[in-house]
Design brief:
Layout lengths: L8 H4 L3 H13 L5 H4 L8 H7 L6 H13 L16 H4 L2 E4 L15 H6 L1 H7 L3 E4 L3 E2 L11 E5 L6 H13 L3 E7 L2 E3 L3 H7 L3 H4 L4 E2 L14 E4 L4 E4 L6 E3 L5 H16 L4 E5 L15 H7 L13 H13 L5 E5 L5 H8 L8 E3 L23 H9 L8 E2 L9 H4 L7 H14 L3 E5 L20 H12 L4 H11 L36 H5 L5 H14 L2 H4 L1 E5 L5 E7 L3 E7 L17 E2 L13 E5 L1
Parallel strand pairs: 1-2, 1-15, 2-5, 5-11, 11-12, 12-13, 14-15
Antiparallel strand pairs: 3-4, 6-10, 7-9, 8-9, 16-17, 17-18, 18-20, 19-20
Helix pairs in contact: 12-14, 18-22, 19-20
The chain binds 6-O-alpha-D-glucopyranosyl-D-fructose (ISL) and calcium ion.
């Protein structure tokens, strides 16, 4: 279906690309898709939006928008219900390790592979079945290892290839699966391929994306997405730091290299991959300028040309056919900005692309971006969460996560006072282990670790934060205001050392860690929490075990029960029935179920008739 200004909105959102693009657009304006599905607004023609937006939507934006809608190809999708197949990764609980900050085994202040091995029993005791390990490959660390200098060797600070082989073995000895983090969208500028390209080697020049005249795309880490290389007199594309150069996936040699690299690791025994920004690998041919309005809404100019590029599905299918499926490897793709319907194309069980993906819209409130100074409102994430439970289709399986190495701690984000740290952390655990999908726990989330009280720019390490500060202050933002933005959005919050004990450096290392330890480690740490029955850690353990002993919490159907917008109430049904009641606010609320029966779980130590701030209850019938 060709979309024009005369297409009615309700028809636009019948196509996958239309649905997701309109939903994303509304989301960035702070609105919800229900606006179109549940009201006569759906009858309006697309062109009418221009007039109704009071100048927010320009005519050139509308042109760009229509072009995006029509360029996304494969659009119609069917809503056929189906049978959800079973798989180990649907039943598993994943635990994400960020090696640099997990455990230092040799006293240099930097976490390492041997440190991870030391703590595998801890991960096992938590009840996790699989580990996702962030990159440990050789890297100059412009972006903590997401800038890979050699895909087949290990960062010296982290250990050796033998250490990684040992890690694989030790995981498997404990029945823990291991997936590793492959960064296939870009390489370090220090990688052999890029160095050869700079020396004029034509073969390797073709591995990257060049231009004599850069387009207007911006980098995720501030500024232009192009860097000039005088050696060759041209600019190279880098969507991230200027030491992370984008690969040219349209070149079959690049794809072949990547498949070989994946095969190398699968031969060593890893069980699969987390694929870094894998949805960005295909870019619109000719690399045209991005639309400025789309750019300012999304925060990044040019994104419509690669967030689900023209050959993405084709390349993912090829990757799967060539290397993943012969090994039955599991994959979870990082797909920022990919909406629910297009995600079905990437992860549908009959599509032959990826097992699962991470999409991030629920992590930020509608209309907000990570560096915005605001308290995250848990209520506002509900429509998005519920949609992935009910509309993602029986042929796909959601991931469940609220933290990772790129986001502040959720208990701090939702309550910067810290007053309800324990309740919110446990509330999040209830969502992780009672919603439908595969839970991903990020290291320290199970302890209720918090954001770090950064005061000085020198305490930050992340290239994104440092560039952001520079960009903002050079655009006239006052320094203390820019510092406040970092305090709300910096990825470094998630990267402070894991708090193992109340000992020196939180038991992370014998010497000063590469980034500050949160001063609250004397109270918030694994050792103290293991000994406290009411701790966040023990809550995680018991909820994981609840989930494992009741398959209804894994495969049971999901139904949202309508109450007030302050509560999230849902049911998981199968052989049994679980009802989950969550107060999403910091105020007392009436409990619609209080008299029914007593809950099997509560995030408060005692019971009460009314729901207390952020109270989360699980009932079993
Ligand atoms: O942080 C984000 C959303 O919360 C994104 O903008 C993020 O930068 C994006 O999801 C890409 O992240 C991944 O690739 C980056 C790397 O810096 C991140 O750590 C990684 O998770 C580049 O490799
Ligand atoms: Ca070390």
């Amino acid at each position: 279906m060709e979309i024009t200004r005369n297409t009615r909105l309700k028809d636009v959102i019948r196509t996958a690309s239309g649905h997701d693009t309109v939903a994303r657009l509304l989301y960035s304006l702070g609105l919800d898709l229900d606006l179109i599905t549940n009201t006569p607004i759906g009858l309006l023609k697309l062109g009418a939006l221009e007039k109704l937006s009071f100048g927010k939507i320009s005519s050139s934006f509308m042109d760009a928008f229509i072009r995006i809608l029509n360029s996304l190809g494969e659009s119609e999708f069917s809503n056929e219900p189906g049978q959800t197949g079973i798989a180990w990764w649907k039943e598993a609980v994943f635990y994400q390790v960020y090696p640099r900050s997990f455990k230092d085994s040799n006293g240099d202040g930097i976490g390492d592979i041997k440190g991870i091995i030391e703590k595998l029993d801890y991960i096992k005791d938590l009840g996790a079945d699989a580990v996702w390990c962030s990159p440990f490959f050789d890297s100059p660390n412009a972006d903590n290892g997401y800038d890979i200098r050699d895909y087949r060797s290990v960062m010296a600070e982290f250990g050796t290839l033998d250490d990684v082989k040992q890690l694989i073995k030790e995981c498997h000895d404990r029945d823990i699966r291991l997936i590793i983090d492959l960064v296939m969208n870009h390489t370090s500028d220090e990688y052999e391929w890029f160095r050869k390209a700079l020396c004029g080697d034509e073969k390797y020049r073709g591995y990257y994306m060049w231009s004599k005249k850069p387009n207007n795309w911006t980098s995720f880490f501030s500024g232009s997405a192009w860097k000039f290389f005088p050696q060759v007199g041209e600019y190279a594309l880098h969507l991230f730091a200027d030491k992370q150069i984008d690969l040219n996936w349209d070149n079959p040699d690049v794809r072949k290299e990547m498949y070989d690299i994946a095969g190398f690791w699968l031969d060593l025994g890893v069980d699969g991959f987390r694929l870094d920004v894998v949805s960005f690998i295909s870019k619109t041919e000719g690399l045209p300028d991005g639309d400025p309005t789309v750019g300012s809404l999304m925060g990044f100019t040019g994104i419509e040309h690669y967030f689900h590029g023209p050959h993405l599905d084709e390349y993912l299918r090829e990757f799967n056919r060539e290397v993943l499926s012969p090994y039955s490897a599991y994959t979870v793709g990082e797909c920022p900005g990919n909406g629910i319907m297009m995600s079905r194309m990437i992860t549908g069980d009959d599509r032959g692309e990826l097992s699962q993906l991470f999409s991030f819209d629920h992590i930020e409130n509608p209309g907000k971006k990570r560096f915005d100074v605001y308290d995250f409102d848990l209520r506002k994430m509900v429509p998005e969460l519920v949609r992935w439970q009910t509309e993602y289709s029986d042929h796909c399986w959601p991931t469940l996560f609220f933290e990772n190495h790129d986001n502040p701690r959720i208990c701090s984000k939702a309550d910067h006072t810290g007053r309800y740290r324990v309740q919110i952390s446990k509330l999040i655990a209830v969502l992780l282990f009672t919603l439908k999908g595969t839970p991903y726990v990020y290291q320290g989330g199970e302890l209720g670790m918090t954001d770090y009280p950064f005061r000085d720019l020198s305490e930050y390490r992340d290239v994104e934060s440092l560039n952001y500060f520079r960009e903002k202050t050079s655009c006239g933002v006052a320094e203390d205001e820019a510092m406040k933005m970092l305090l709300y959005g910096s990825r470094d919050h998630a990267r402070t050392p894991m708090q193992w004990s109340s000992g020196k450096n939180a038991g992370f290392s014998d010497s000063a860690p590469w980034i500050g330890v949160n001063p609250n480690y004397t109270e918030i740490n694994a050792e103290a929490e293991a000994a406290d029955p009411g701790s966040v850690l023990n809550c995680y353990r018991s909820l994981i075990s609840l989930r494992k002993t009741h398959r209804t919490l894994i495969y049971g159907s999901f139904r949202k029960i309508r109450t007030s917008k302050n509560l999230l109430v849902y049911e998981r049904s199968g052989d049994e029935n679980f009802t989950v009641v969550i107060n999403l606010t910091g105020r007392r609320r009436r409990n619609p179920f209080s008299s029914d029966s007593s809950p099997v779980f509560s995030n408060y130590p005692d019971s009460a008739d009314a729901l207390r701030p952020y109270e989360a209850l699980i009932y079993r019938r």
